[in-house]
Amino acid sequence: MKKVILFFSCFVLISCAELQQVVNTLPQSGGGLDPTMIANGLRQALDFGIDKQVSKLTQKDGFYKNSLVKILLPQELQKVDKTLRDIGLGKLADEGLKVLNRAAEDAVKEATPIFVDAVKGITFSDAKNILLGPDNAATNYLEGRTNTALYGKFNPVIKNSFQKVGADQIWENIITKYNSVPFVNKVNPDLTDYVTNQALEGVYTMIAVEEKKIRTNVASRTTTLLRQVFGLQD
């Protein structure tokens, strides 16, 4: 009986020692990482989204040939596109769509520092819940806290890019030709506003792509901070 008791005592001691080793490897501070460290990890993930994904949008065809973010015509201009194609001006219609995307590509290049500063300045009110949220939780949080302010900064950049890539002249030509067609309702949409919103949406979409990679693929956690923070959600 003494041998049996001794055996189980040793087993319990060994098990406790192994359990303690496991506990020692777990994040501390109330069962999780420090909220400041989590917030820093979330910011780093968003920074990686800007560096690795948003930068792709600044290249030629970054919007135009990316099905996730390609800017299509607003509803009020779809009838313009169809009418132009029906009267043999399909090439002009294609060019009109392309320059909208070119303006967005140019504008994102100019405005990338705006997004970098926004990420640096963001304060996570509940970092742990964001960390344990859906694959795009940090991006959604960034969008909710920055979209209005970023629109105000981004809109004049888009307007300048319209002029820079010649989109304003091309669309003036398109609208003039369309409005000269008999019996059509004349249009004059605010394309700067539309492309600004579409470009912002594209930026957030691409940041979310990188956030999801970091959350779901351990190999994408290329820094110690990312491994520590996002390991908590695995």
What does this structure look like?
This is DUF4197 domain-containing protein. Keywords: Signal. It comes from Rasiella rasia. Pfam families: DUF4197. The protein has helices spanning about 1-25, 35-55, 75-85, 90-120, 125-130, 135-165, 165-180, 190-215, 225-230. The protein is mainly alpha-helical and about 230 residues long. The protein has one domain. Helix 6 packs antiparallel against helix 8 (about 190-215). The longest helix is centred in the middle third of the chain and has 32 residues, at about 90-120. The protein is elongated. The two termini are about 45 Å apart.
Compose a concise summary of this entry.
This is DUF4197 domain-containing protein. The chain has 234 residues and is mainly α.
% residues in beta strands: under 5%
User: What value does the Rg take, in angstroms?
Assistant: 26 Å
Helix content: over 70%
First CA to last CA: what distance? 44 Å
Taking the sheet with the most strands, its summary is: none
Low-confidence stretches: 1-31
Helix/strand class:
mainly alpha
Order of helices and strands: HHHHHHHHH
Strand-helix topology:
Blueprint: H1 2-25, H2 35-57, H3 75-86, H4 90-121, H5 127-131, H6 137-165, H7 167-179, H8 191-216, H9 224-231
Index terms:
single chain; 234 residues; mainly alpha; 74% helix; 0% strand; disordered N terminus
